[in-house]
Write a structure and sequence with these properties.
The chain is built from three helices and seven strands. The protein is an alpha/beta fold.
Length: 141
């Protein structure tokens, strides 16, 4: 498979606990911090927020592609992505996600159909399939 694009980010310092993430093109630069809910300072972006933002942006693109393939004109799209980091009783960390796309210009049934199609198209959804628990709850606007 030919490579179309590779995003490269360097993380320096303490990683999620006080590190800095910088893209090689200089367009992304964020300090990192452990969330307050996990006992950290919570004063900077954390990896779960970055992953949620990336997945949500990609997923909306997939919703729009699914609509275009079906000749459906959308009036709006938005999404809330919740990525949860869980520290289990076994001491291991794991992720789960809930994607809540809101799709305008269609009924609820069509919104759900488009969201399910997007979940099959989106590279982030493909990458996580079978690896983490994911729920998609689409609504119409």
């Amino acid at each position: 498979m030919p490579v179309s694009y590779t995003g490269t980010v360097d993380v320096i310092g303490e990683g999620r606990n006080g590190g800095t993430a910088r893209s090689t093109d200089g367009l992304l630069e964020h300090s990192l911090s452990i969330p307050k809910e996990l006992g950290g300072a919570g004063d900077a972006t954390n990896p779960e927020q970055l992953f949620a933002a990336a997945w949500a942006a990609c997923f909306l693109g997939a919703v729009r592609r699914a609509a275009a393939l079906r000749d459906i004109k959308l009036t709006s799209t938005s999404i809330t992505a919740d990525v949860t980091l869980t520290h289990g009783d076994d001491g291991e960390f794991s992720l789960s996600a809930v994607l809540n796309p809101r799709i305008g210009g269609v009924d609820v049934s069509t919104a759900r159909e488009l969201a399910e199609a997007a979940h099959q198209i989106c590279p982030y959804s493909k990458a996580t399939r079978g690896n983490i628990e994911v729920r998609v709850d689409a609504t119409a606007e």
